[in-house]
Amino acid sequence: MSERPPVVLIGPMGAGKTRIGKRVARILGTGFVDTDRMIVAEHGPIADIFDTLGEPHFRALERDAVARALRGSDVVALGGGAVLDADTRAALAGERVVLVTVAPEAVAPRLRDGRRPLVRNGLADWERIYAERRPIYEQLARLTVDTSHRPIDAVAQEVAEWSKTAA
User: Fold this and answer.
1) pTM surpassing 0.85?
2) Which residues bind Mg(2+) (predicted)?
3) 150 appears as a binding residue in the annotation
């Protein structure tokens, strides 16, 4: 891990946080971690956690994963709902936080894989959840980038360049 605080990507499901995070880390020559992938590796599929243990249990696992990721990584992608936790929001207060946004028409094809338990009913669920979380995302973010109509590599380059000057 570098001496600089991590670059943390937040935003709605399907916005491209993981893809961008991997590219930003590659550009910067640093480490990358996706907190959802940490949870899956340690506890199994997120949909199964939601179905068997419930959302509160998942959020506790997520809070722990975020805390560990912020201590040990240079680029971190958070799950869309991670910012709902007050402790996580407090931990992000001093970080270089990037909000990754996407328009509904651009995210719709990305939601068809059925792996996201909170949007099993499709785009209407996604739009409702994004509207609820958007004020939190915007409050935490120091940079906002949109993935709707831009190449992922261009977005990642923008984030990487910004991170070099952001304290």
Assistant:
1) yes
2) 18
3) yes
